[in-house]
Amino acid sequence: MENNYLIKTENLTKQYPIGLQKFTALEDINLTFQKGEFAGLVGPSGSGKTTLLNILGSLDSPTSGLALVMDKNVGELSHSESAHLRNEHLGFIFQTYNLLPVYTVYENVEFPLLLLKMNGRDRKDKIMQALEWVGLTSKIKSKPGQLSGGESQRVAIARAMVKQPKIVLADEPTANLDAENSHNILKMMTNLNKELQTTFLFATHDQKVIGYLRRKISLFDGKVVADEEITPEIQTDQEQ
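Structure (tokenized):
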């Protein structure tokens, strides 16, 4: 990277046609994110959090303005170039886990490495390391239907982290979890952020998530209304 940022947006705007009108989901978003950040896009439903996360994840493109991710202009990427960016550099964690039900925990975590065409021995080493991170080495042969919600989300984190991406994008990752599991998941992600210097960017309105953030970007009606460095309310083991 020639620049000191992993993500940069300049006057990013996203509009959707609604009949003869246009709905502005995002308007003039100017943000940068550097290596090792633990940041959140915070705001009520409809504020543009997920839309922005999808653009930064090259799952969508801006209507106007610029979105640079790993020095790539997301709005100019072809489908194959977008897929390459996601495969090489991005990890995704969703509120619905998105695990493949017919595959084991091991196979679900393996999937991103198959896309990278990694050899079998290297895949196994990385899969077991990722499952150790989330404390699920004993569940490698289990299928998603045999797991609790907290365990399923831990598998999703292992899948996101197995290739050690530069950036992890997490959309409401605790929405379907109880408080205890939410805190366990968030402590796990905080520790991985510190250990690997992976940049984590959340879209959330969950106060439990906000308590762990070191940067809070507040969105309202598609605009950034505040961008502040904050002290995490909850200290992890590595911070104590």
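The chain has a mean pLDDT of 92. Residues 215 and 229 are 4 Å apart (CA to CA).
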